[in-house]
Design goal:
- The protein is mainly alpha-helical.
- It has two domains: 105 residues, no CATH class; 154 residues, no CATH class.
- A two-stranded antiparallel sheet has the order 1-2.
- A hairpin with a 3-residue loop joins β1 and β2.
Length: 287
């Protein structure tokens, strides 16, 4: 019950932001989630380092400020390609800090893990406001969320009821091939319903869920996002297993930590961004 109630609250909050919020609200909400997630990441990284008799030396203030900086340069006053030089500068700053503060053997792993935290968590979440402000952006973000969440729900319940064949037992013993297939089918079913709702509303002049691309492209993209989401879930499980913990935190009742809830989005969101860039580059049209 806790899991269901938490999920309902989160879903309602997200959709309220998508349809009634402003860009700064969505950016601030995504930044808050990212900051909480990077704190969990540092905790996991420290536990993992201690398991190998090492000590992680990524300063929490650097992680918090760096995450905020990645989001800051997504604001309209900055060019769209500002994130790469900012991430590069932040990484070099951490490298210099570790060079003088960490034992020589720890300089590279400490810097690499700090950069990984930005690329894995801050960068993907910073793309959500960028997606939202595209033409038909709210529909694009709804499509992303539904493709990920519906697959996650289908995998959870179908996998529990009918799962027999392990998908990746070394990373996540509970995942099964039956659940994985159900996840793909769930994403296709729900995004298909989204397309139907989009057509009905568009026919009445309401473009709030307008999707302009062909049906086959949308459904293909739904499958790609679902597979990316499943991979993101498995990779977060690999990080947790490396740290020897079951959940990334305890902030969300019934769900564990923030990372446990957004792990699928952390891979699916950049994959959607790359797909849109590829569509523009190849002339396949916009979403």
């Amino acid at each position: 019950m806790k899991r269901i109630l938490t999920a309902l609250v989160l879903i309602l909050a997200v959709f309220a932001l998508i349809f009634f919020g402003r860009l700064w609200m969505l950016t601030l909400a995504a930044l808050l989630v990212a900051e909480l997630a990077v704190v969990e990441f540092l905790s996991l990284a420290r536990v993992g380092a201690e398991a190998h008799n090492a000590r992680l030396r990524i300063p929490l203030p650097w992680m918090v400020v760096a995450t905020a900086a990645v989001f800051a340069v997504t604001l309209p006053s900055f060019p769209v390609d500002a994130q790469l030089p900012v991430i590069s500068f932040l990484t070099l700053a951490l490298f210099a800090w570790n060079g003088f503060r960490s034992p020589a053997i720890q300089v590279l792993p400490d810097t690499a893990q700090g950069l990984f935290g930005l690329i894995w968590i801050a960068y993907p979440l910073s793309l959500i406001p960028l997606l939202w402000k595209q033409e038909d952006g709210p529909a694009l973000v709804v499509f992303l969320m539904l493709a990920v969440w519906s697959g996650d729900i289908a995998a959870l319940y179908i996998g529990r009821a009918f799962g027999r064949h392990k998908l990746a037992p070394r990373l996540s013993p509970g995942k099964t091939w039956e659940g994985s297939i159900a996840s793909v089918l769930g994403s296709l079913a729900v995004t298909g319903m989204l397309l139907y709702a989009s057509d009905l509303l568009s026919a009445r002049g309401n473009l709030v869920l307008h999707i302009g691309e062909p049906l086959w492209q949308t459904l293909t993209l739904a499958v790609v996002l679902n597979l990316a989401a499943q991979l993101g879930d498995l990779l977060e499980s690999a990080v947790k297993r490396g740290a020897g913990v079951k959940d990334s935190g305890t902030l969300l009742p019934g769900h564990g930590g923030i990372l446990d809830r957004i792990d699928a989005l952390l891979l699916a969101t950049p994959v959607l961004w790359y797909a849109l860039v590829l569509k523009d580059a190849t002339g396949l049209g916009r979403f």
